[in-house]
Amino acid sequence: MCGIVGYIGTQAASSILLEGLRKLEYRGYDSAGIATVLEGEIHCVRAKGKLHNLESKLAGEDNPARVGIAHTRWATHGKPEEYNAHPHTDTAKRIAVIQNGIIENYRELREELKERGCQFRSDTDTEVIPHLIAEVLQQAESMEASPLVSIEPSPFLEAVRQVVNRLEGAFAIAVISADYPDELIVARQQAPVVIGFGQGEFYCASDTPAIVPYTRAVLTLDNGELARMTPLGVEVYSFEGQRLKKTPRTLNWNPVMVEKQGFKHFMLKEIYEQPGVVRSCLENYIDSHWTAADHRHSPIRLNLSADLYADLQQIQIVACGTSWHAALVGKYLLEQLAELPTSVQYASEFRYAPSPLTPNTLTIGVTQSGETADTLAALAMEKQRRSGHASEFQARLLGITNRPESSLGDLVPHIIDTHAGIEIGVAATKTFVAQLMAFYCLAIDLAQQRQVIAPAQLEQLLAGLQQLPAQIEAVLESQERYIEQLAHDFAETQDFIFLGRGINFPIALEGALKLKEISYIHAEGYPAGEMKHGPIALLDAKVPVVAIAMPGTVFEKVLSNAQEAKARDARLIGVTPMDEHEAAETFDTVIPVPHVDELLSPIVTVIPLQLLAYHIAARRGLDVDQPRNLAKSVTVE
Ligand code: AGP
């Protein structure tokens, strides 16, 4: 949700912190702030709105401070105003805190502090933290024998440790103090924190893009851990005060991955990265030499343990947003290819109304970030429900993610890494296509192992998969300019309908979500056959209808449904192969895509819908990468 970044070392902290915020702005952009320890005082500057407002406020400041923290906010408690922006300080302004997450028991802590005379300056849950830390430090100072000795090196660390033990919720915090200028304390409870190791300088952040320009040696804090960072090194402790031994790992990606590389927006760059993402999945997971003659073994190399598949009777998938759409495509594949009954649920609904617990069920969580609170909570609940049952049943939890090192990776025993590379644009594009590829691999693997797919069909499907990167490239090369022009027609449009059937129904949902998210145009996705049961009342000449019509089981049906829309004067845009004459006659406008096996078509049909949403939003002059009210990963409930 929010982005936190911290620095301690030998250089001026503020420019490093600002650069870190630029890299994390995708996590939230309602307000931003920075605090450093300067000449024995906390120097705090905050601004409402996007990061450039904070940058303007800081322009001309020559701040030599060598320790500091900074924050970019996605508002949860309190409006996006400067007084609610982080960092928050205690009354004497000796301590500054930034937080990502939610402190669930903040009301009771706030009342308690108020009763002791504390005055609050913000509406946030976070502000209780600096006040509590200040209280613990004051109490310690006023006692002859300080109780703050359980963590030897630092009373400041011990005060933070005592306070984090009082907080409930999912949070990550970073804290500095004017009285302990050589320390930066960071703590994690279910919200991500990474620490970067430089030469005599150390970094912390919610996510690696803020750190990777400086170092690739990183350490991820686990839940219930806090770290004391000084210019001499990093010490990690448990919330109970135990010193822990942790070793940094090396990140295998580079700073260029978080640059736009000549594209106007990250979203467009990420749309263009999709052929590469599909290629990388093919290389990682599919044996390209497999033929029907090899039918005794699977062409898929997901390296999942055999326990996951044994006696499997059904699958349930939990996810949110775009990942939920990928799960719907997954359901289609798992049912039609692997013949396994599959249900897909919104994680936020599942956690309060779970399906009855059934044995021989595999639960899959799909989340590109691996940090979505609802998805993690649904999976944690499922894990809890299974404890006490047979160990094979407990182990039947699988995550599909682009960030295997995330909280999801800690939660579930099995992971499919989608290898899409970091995605910065808030609207998911390449990670969606990568999730679809993971489902193709899983469904094919299950179908082969359950022996419910004919070797010849499998060979044909694999050949089709190998062609997808070139087919996506063909759509990008031949259609982007055309779609850019087409977008001019819709700059003032207020409502859009997207229609699809079968495996392309989720793509209609995804096309509508992309448009809503970044252009703020109202859009709905429907199964094309369902339109006549109500939504058709919305149609008139002002409501364009985008229909996905790919040759296969429902092709004729979609064309008939499109005719029904045409009869209500709607402008019809078809995503369909150019040489389908019936389709060409039906649609007012055709966005041509290559002929693709219907089962594989979502990977191709989604591309023009992403481009359409992108160009309409860009045409409307909107902030494509950071749409209003959204954040890249939703780490709160
Ligand atoms: C996608 O464009 C959205 N930004 C959003 O719906 C997203 O897919 C959802 O929040 C789930 O995120 P996750 O995949 O990181 O769990």
What report would you give on this structure?
The chain is α/β, with parallel strands linked by helices and 637 residues long. The protein contains 18 helices and 25 strands. The strands form 4 sheets. The chain has an 8-stranded antiparallel sheet with strand order 3-2-4-1-10-9-11-15, with helices on one face. The protein has a 7-stranded antiparallel sheet with strand order 5-6-7-8-12-13-14. The chain has a 5-stranded parallel sheet with strand order 17-16-18-19-20, with helices on both faces. Helix 8 (321-336) packs antiparallel against helix 15. The site of 2-deoxy-2-amino glucitol-6-phosphate (AGP) has 15 residues, from helix 8.
Name a few traits of the molecule.
637 residues, eight-stranded antiparallel sheet, seven-stranded antiparallel sheet, 25 strands, globular, binds 2-deoxy-2-amino glucitol-6-phosphate
